[in-house]
Design goal:
This protein is of the alpha+beta class. It contains 4 helices and 6 strands; from the N terminus they run H-E-E-E-H-E-H-E-E-H. It folds into 2 domains: 56 residues; 87 residues, no CATH class. The protein is elongated, with a radius of gyration of 19 Å.
Length: 148
C-alpha cells in the first residue's frame, strides 16, 4: 500500500509541478505582451458534455476584435489555459456572473510577434505558485509515507 501511495503521490506531484510551471512561465511571457483595446462582438456560455460521465461543463466564450497598424484581427481566447489548448470550466451561475463583468470595450494582451495571438485575462500567478507548491507537498507526503 505504501508503494501505491508513493507512486500515486509522485504522479500527482509531477502533473502539478509540470502544468503549474508551464502556466507560470506562460503568465510571465504574456504579461509582457502589448495591451490593446478590443471591442466585444459576442459573449456567451457554451455547455460541453463530458463523454465519460455524461455531466455538462460550461465554458465561457467571448469573441472580440482589435486593430493593430490598421489591420483588424478577431479572436476568442479568454484565459491563459486556452493558449495551451485547455479550457476553464464554469457552473452556469458563475459563468453568467463572470460575463456580466465584461463590458463592450475590453483591454487584451496581444503577442507582438504574432498579432493573431491574443488573450483577455493574464492573471492567476498566485494560483500557479500554489499548484507548484501542492505538487512538492504531494511528493513529500508520498516520500515520507513510504520511508516511515
Amino acid at each position: 500500500m505504501k508503494l501505491f501511495t508513493l507512486i500515486f503521490s509522485l504522479i500527482i506531484a509531477f502533473v502539478a509541478i509540470y502544468y503549474g510551471t508551464k502556466l507560470f512561465r506562460l503568465n510571465r511571457k504574456v504579461s509582457k505582451w502589448m495591451k490593446v483595446k478590443a471591442k466585444v462582438l459576442s459573449k456567451g456560455i457554451i455547455p460541453k458534455k463530458l463523454s465519460t460521465s455524461g455531466r455538462v461543463r460550461n465554458t465561457v466564450t467571448i469573441e472580440y476584435s482589435y486593430k493593430i497598424n490598421g489591420v483588424e484581427y478577431k479572436n476568442n481566447v479568454v484565459f491563459l489555459v486556452e493558449l495551451m489548448k485547455g479550457e476553464k470550466g464554469f457552473l452556469i451561475k458563475d459563468g453568467e456572473k463572470f460575463l456580466k463583468k465584461i463590458n463592450s470595450d475590453i483591454e487584451i494582451f496581444v503577442n507582438p510577434e504574432n498579432n493573431n495571438e491574443s488573450v483577455v485575462y493574464c492573471d492567476g500567478l498566485i494560483m500557479y505558485i500554489f499548484v507548484i507548491f501542492m505538487g512538492f507537498l504531494s511528493a513529500m507526503i508520498g516520500l515520507l509515507n513510504y520511508i516511515s
